[in-house]
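Internal ticket - ligand job 286, coenzyme A:
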Amino acid sequence: MSVPFDYSGRTVFVAGGTSGINLTVAQAFAEAGAAVAVLSRNPDKVNSAVAAIGETGSPVIGFVGDVRDYDSVAGALAAARHQLGGLDVIISGAAGNFPAAARDMSPRAFAAVVDIDLKGTFNVLRAAHEHLRTPGAAVINISAPQSSIPMELQSHACAAKAGVDMLTRVCALEWGSEGIRVNAVVPGPIAETEGMARLAPTPELSRVVAESVPLGRYGTTREIADCCLWLASPSAAYITGAIIPVDGGWSLGGASQVFTAMRALLTAPRPEVTPEQEGAGAVAAE
Ligand code: COA
Ligand code: NAP
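stdout (structure tokens):
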């Protein structure tokens, strides 16, 4: 059951808020009475998200933009403030991901994910700061278990989301005195999302993922939204710089095994290596 929060008179900007987890977050704030703005690249997704969020009856506006482009992010935030008023809550959730081994990934592939997830989050926070209504504003970055758990085929997302967590902590330090709280939510595997469609694309991998979660199931987009509603509210007024897993306990250990299973399913088996070969680069002691 969802906890009721009252966000009437508040404004919320969701970067990447047009599908999946972030769309449900945007809808949840609108249901709670907030005026909501969303931004993403695809105009069709922006239009359908605005229509879906608008069904709540709360004001909603959409912007087409790429978080990698600082000017488009800054323009959207300024326009949102102009149309809706000072911003109370910023959700930074735009991200890209695909499974790929570091040795096979092109530099542009690695950069694409770092640019969207990490540099995009910086752009959103940097551009949002001057539009925040303070004291009392709340920033929530949508991180991932990759931020703290090394996973095969995820060098780009691991590096980027680790950066997101540190950006969260540093901005919490720098902005605390202005009455701005900055936190991150770390979703576990969430059902019916693009992220899990890409990372667990077969029924077998889906089963492995669900079994690797201590609570034994995928989470729902609504469970992430409920955490965001609470974290941005006065009920969480003393929480800043926190990286909060909402993951059924996945980060306790199960997460890492899944990607090893994925490598086994998607790539050739690991070649046999003898102890002599493993030590081939070492210099023997006298
Ligand atoms: N495996 C390996 N490399 C891949 C890849 C894959 N599955 N998908 C894309 N790339 C590479 C491309 O080949 C390209 O590198 P190259 O120019 O050296 O060939 C590079 O990544 C950039 O791809 P491009 O399609 O130009 O990037 P984009 O900016 O249009 O899209 C992505 C960004 C690649 C992250 C795209 O998957 C995306 O838009 N994702 C958003 C949705 C999403 O991932 N949701 C889940 C969130 S957890
Ligand atoms: P999703 O539906 O693909 O959501 C990504 C959103 O970001 C979309 O609205 C997308 O819209 C937008 N976006 C992507 N690149 C962008 C860019 N360059 N500029 C602006 N917007 C951009 O994926 P999801 O699975 O729900 O994931 C949402 C968030 O949760 C991500 O931060 C992800 O890392 C995190 N997460 C997900 C899971 C999971 O189980 N799914 C687990 C842990 C963490 P456009 O395509 O229109 O740009």
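Auto-summary: DSSP finds ten helices and seven strands in the chain. The chain has a mean pLDDT of 94.
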